[in-house]
Amino acid sequence: MGRTDAHRLRLLSYNIQTGVDTRRYREYVTHSWKHLLPHRDRLANLNRIARLLKDFDLVGLQEVDSGSLRSGFLDQTEYLAQQAGFPYWYKQINRSLGKLAQHSNGVLSRVHPSTIVEHRLPGLPGRGAMLMEFATSEKPLGVCIMHLALGRRARLRQFSYISELVSHYSHLILMGDFNCGCGSQEFRFLMDNTDLQGTSCDLKTFPSWRPNRKLDHILASPSLRVAKAEVLDYAHSDHLPVSLEIELPANVRLAKAA
Asked: How far apart (Å, rounded) are the C-alpha atoms in residues 70 and 197?
């Protein structure tokens, strides 16, 4: 593995809406049945998403289904990992409705994490975070993938919990669907209580067909140099994916799987 590969990570965060390809607001009503029942286009849409994921080293997914009626009992995290060639994948079921729905977070990685811990976030049930740690030749790299609540007060409690949870990391990445923009009170709370660096507020991710809100974020500690940040024009959900390429410090190396 060359020096560039050893010292760079390509990150992606994507809320895939369980593979539902929403194109306009009215489809939340006219296509609402797709959130409960299987449909023939879902697998084709997952295959399109998998083609995008192949270009990344670490992917955080929100709104994946872990195997229920609506997904044809397909574990979508596992399926996307296999289609995109990721050797490691993990899921966190945040809301289980039995055979009807298994609402989850997912992570795909080309690097083997030394630890991964699931956290239930404060507020009503159904929101969670996955905290991974990657061993390096120096201090570990922490990566936290999350999907936050719709309510502002709940998000404020969740950001408070997360900021305390990750406070000991020198090298840190937070990523996911925060359900709030970078001008919100709760997002400012997070930034004021950590030393994380954000990306441009102009990187809008929602709705995918006419993005005017930045709900999806990837944040990095100052020790990680941001080489590239962008929202990808890949509208196969109601959110657009956000990507970040980071450069690790010279003394931090991660061994990627081939």
From this structure: 38
